[in-house]
Amino acid sequence: MKPFVYITRKVPDEIYARLAKVYKVEMWPEEDKAVPREILLEKASVANALLTVISDQIDEELFSCASNLKVVANMAVGFDNIDLEKASRFGVAVCNTPEVLTDTTADLTFALLLATARRMTEASEFVKDGKWTSWAPMMLVGTDVHHKKIGIVGMGKIGTAVAKRAAGFDMEILYHNRRRHEVAEEMLGAQYREFDELLEEADFVVCLAPLNDDTRGMFQRKHFQKMKKEAIFINASRGPIINEQALLDALEAGEIAAAGLDVFDQEPISKNHPFLAMKNVVALPHIGSASKETRLAMMTMCCDNIDAVFEERPPRTLVNKDVLQF
Ligand code: GLV
Description:
Structural class: alpha/beta
Oligomer: single chain
Mean pLDDT: 97
Radius of gyration: 21 Å
CATH superfamily of the largest domain: NAD(P)-binding Rossmann-like Domain
Bound molecules: glyoxylic acid
């Protein structure tokens, strides 16, 4: 009997067809709506593999009813939606999609930084709303990016790729990370700072740390208060790393100048979220890795990982290396 693969979100035909050649495949057919929890649990209870996205909660409840499940291939580099310890306990391999999305996500992060500093979404709305009636010296002025100080919190692969882009803009590069990054220090002149020092010095604070027990709620009000009043905060990793209310309060009180956010505490955010009324907030719908090429590469990596498991090889990007299957 062919293994059963359940895909939790509509994927392009070529990805579906590739899996359907080898497996029995079913897919949640909607692109803009997450699979309802009860359907996810029902499918997981009979699936041998799940191809998941970051909004799927893959937890103990799911593993306990998924007795035939061998692999969860998560289409993301982050895997905070999956309880890894339980996955290993239930003997389920968990895979992610690192590296293929590094440059694409770094491009978006830097674009978000530029858009926030130069008020690009506000300016575009201004033109589209027919408000552009003349040229004025101080119309929609933003702040420079070049030759400023960027402070990267989380100097992993994406953080380093953002630092490379910052070097091209002649920025001074500060970073904070669990471990020193000697290569970035040597190649890009990146300078290590303690967290508080980085907050105090940087003109742009860019959060790219993974969400885990150490980073959840890492940015509280006092951290925004340490930043310069002109500082711009960018978050392209995960919403829960910041206390969202603290960021709102800091923006409202003018403790920082602006924020560019690709990620939020609850995604999607509601239509009346206070961020949406703030001109100095650029809000994007978690599109860091969203280029056609990269999304296809991520899905292909998920398929490769599923193949590996059913061919009894360790998947290339296995996250829970303590799982006993291999
Ligand atoms: C997206 O947020 C990812 O983790 O790949």
